Amino acid sequence: MAISRIDLGGAGSPEALVKRILQAEPNLSMPVPIQEMCARLGILRIEDLDTDEFEGGLVTNAKRSEGTILAKRGGEPRRRFTIAHELGHFLMAHHVPDQPGRFLCKSSDLRRLTAKEGDERQLREIEANRFAALVLMPPHLLRGAMAAFREPDLQHVLALARDFMVGKEAAARAYVQYHPERIAIVVAGNGRVQRCYRSLSFPTIICGVGRPVPTRSRYHNSSHLPNIAGDIASCSPDLWIDVRRDLRAPALYEQVYLQNNGFAMILLRLEPIPEESAEERRLEEGWRYRFHSGRR
């Protein structure tokens, strides 16, 4: 790896930084050698962080010329994301730490996708997460990997997590973002919705964060085996999305992947509503007219 800080001059946003990195390293391998990249970009050491309160941290000097990344021990995919997140803080000069020369990040910071208006700290964490996702799953490599995937399937998410050596949830976010179909992935923990990721074309999920997973969801099917993606099957669309009663209901499909720790991923796939024929529209409009006018 030949990249240096000089290659990143003038880049301030996560997207600009990763663009410069990919220009300097066009043959970047998969999984991305994030620790080697850190060493090339001014990180002197990567040390273990022994605390339950924080997931990662960064110690650096005022000029941001060198630094030490702290990462909690655990699974390698999770640790790699933490390292990349802290590298993002290090490379973005406008990221000002809460304490002079020291960033400390909780696990909730590493999952953050939205920020309260005017909350600069939350905005910094979102940028560091965008950088980590982009540098660990470079778009051109991700698109290449997903080219072999056709019908949406949680097996694909597991394959991405393995090949890019990232966490399953990070892979799920990328999968939803880059897949061409209308899909969403719900992360559930102990029977309740924890987080929802959906493509831009997927409607709002009505079962909000903190609420129980709908009782008629396939999630509650006792036949699921841990760490094996279940079959994809149709479900009632009004379990997850708002369905207008005066319109034809779309087809919605569910797939469940249970994990050993009480968590699960639920893939939702929404098929477009088939266009009605002229005869179907004529009959439907006639039915509505009779219903609303009181005629029989």
Secondary-structure blueprint:
Layout: H1 14-24, H2 34-40, E1 43-49, E2 56-60, E3 67-72, H3 76-91, E4 102-105, H4 120-136, H5 139-146, H6 154-164, H7 168-178, E5 183-189, E6 192-198, E7 233-235, E8 251-258, E9 263-271, H8 278-293
Helix pairs in contact: 1-4, 3-4, 6-7
Brief synopsis:
This protein has 296 residues and is of the alpha+beta class. It has helices at 14-24, 34-40, 76-91, 120-136, 139-146, 154-164, 168-178, 278-293, and strands spanning 43-49, 56-60, 67-72, 102-105, 183-189, 192-198, 233-235, 251-258, 263-271.
Low-confidence stretches: none
Sketch the topology as an H/E string, one letter per element.
Answer: HHEEEHEHHHHEEEEEH
With helices defined by DSSP (H or I, 4 residues minimum), what is the helix count?
8
- Backbone CA Rg: 23 Å
Class by SSE composition: alpha+beta
Strand content: 15-25%
State the total count of DSSP E strands.
9
Overall 3D shape: elongated
Amino- and carboxy-terminal Cα gap: 77 Å
Strand order of the largest sheet: 6-5-9-8-7
Helix content: 25-40%
Sketch the major β-sheet.
5 strands, antiparallel
Average pLDDT reading: 90
